[in-house]
Amino acid sequence: MSLFGRVVAAGYDMTMASTEKAGLSAHRKKLIGMVTGRVLEIGAGTGANLPFYGEGVEELVITEPEDAMAARLERKLGNHSLPVRVVRASAESLPFEDGSFDFAVSTLVLCSVEDPLRALGEIRRLLKPGGQ
Predict the structure, then answer these.
(1) Cα–Cα distances in Å, from 73 out to 14, 22, 97, 120?
(2) In terms of DSSP bridges, do strands 57-63 and 37-41 run parallel, antiparallel, or are they unpaired?
(3) Rounded to whole angstroms, how far apart are CA atoms 63 and 79?
(4) Which of 9, 96, 97, 110 is deepest in the core (most CB within 10 A)?
(5) φ/ψ of residue 62, rounded to 5
C-alpha cells in the first residue's frame, strides 16, 4: 500500500464533504435509491454510496482497486444490512461472468481509470439484457 494511496484515502471523505453537502449527496440518493436486484459498483472508494442503496438490492458487489480505499470501505460495511461483497479489481478488468448484474453504478470514478472506454465495455459485458 503506497504512502500516497493511504494519504488520499485518509483525507478523501473530508475533502468531499462540502461537495456532498452542496448537492452531490442528494444526487446519489435519487439515483442509487432506484437500483434493484444484483448491483455492481465500480470504484467505490471509501463507500460514499453505501447509505443510499435500498431494500430492493438483493446483492451488492463493490469493486475497488486501491487497497487503502478498500480498507476504509470494508470498515464501513459493518453498519449496513445489505449483502455486500468487496472485490479488489480495476474497472478495466472485472472478474465476473457476462450478463450477471441488473444495475451498474459508477460515481466519480471514470476520470481516474486508465482506459475509460474499456471500463465501460466491461460494464456493458456484465449487465444482463435490459440492465442499466
Answers:
(1) 14, 23, 24, 23
(2) parallel
(3) 18
(4) 9
(5) -115, 130
